[in-house]
């Protein structure tokens, strides 16, 4: 049995590899999922489990201690365990941070390859944290016609710091202070924030734009307003994992959309290659909600690269 820490696992998969792992994983039978959470709010243990026919079992176990930042430690510590589909042996343990980094950006960019215009030239990233950094690299790898990347965050200095970190990219990256102005010319908008109230407004978005929503993960969180969700061709990564996220549940509660407004998830998108999912004038929205099945797909691909 192998354990891979972050540095050991980093670089094993390219962004193309990670996105292909998710695509192939969604060609398999639909995953069975189960999550469990225990402990107090200031020190929890989260278990996210998945089974995929042919890949086996995956379990992400993470401690979540929100006070760790005050003592210079990460808030989360964990591993992804992968068990063989053939005999149940433990194939390997991988640091959960690298699996999460890869699966989160790859999830969004896989959705974009299926919904956004392939000739997209202007990408706007909303947020300037760790996820935003990964998104820039993943989108650049899969959208070679990008000509400009704009980064906005509530604090301009954070956007500027990320731009400096990305100064070796072949695509020009700029920090912007006016979000509305930036997204008025965007082909793709990818939002990864902790917003509790909408920061993306329907009347700011031009026709033909693809919007990738990542940040919201609780019933109270959302990044797009009701009108934008209602006006869009709405897709999600997994219908089962998105129902209770504010991005979907709040417009449903407000009567702006019904549950059948969701056009499908990655299982439909990946397995319907002959179907055209958008017109040139459509606004498409893809809600990235994650899930242990994605962790399993990425972890399996890492281990296979190492012939484990």
UniProtKB/TrEMBL annotation:
One of its GO terms (molecular function) is oxidoreductase activity. One of its GO terms (biological process) is carboxylic acid metabolic process. Pfam families: OCD_Mu_crystall. GO terms for cellular component: cytoplasm. InterPro entries: NAD(P)-bd_dom_sf, ODC_Mu_crystall, ODC_N. It comes from the Bacteria. Belongs to the ornithine cyclodeaminase/mu-crystallin family. This is Ornithine cyclodeaminase.
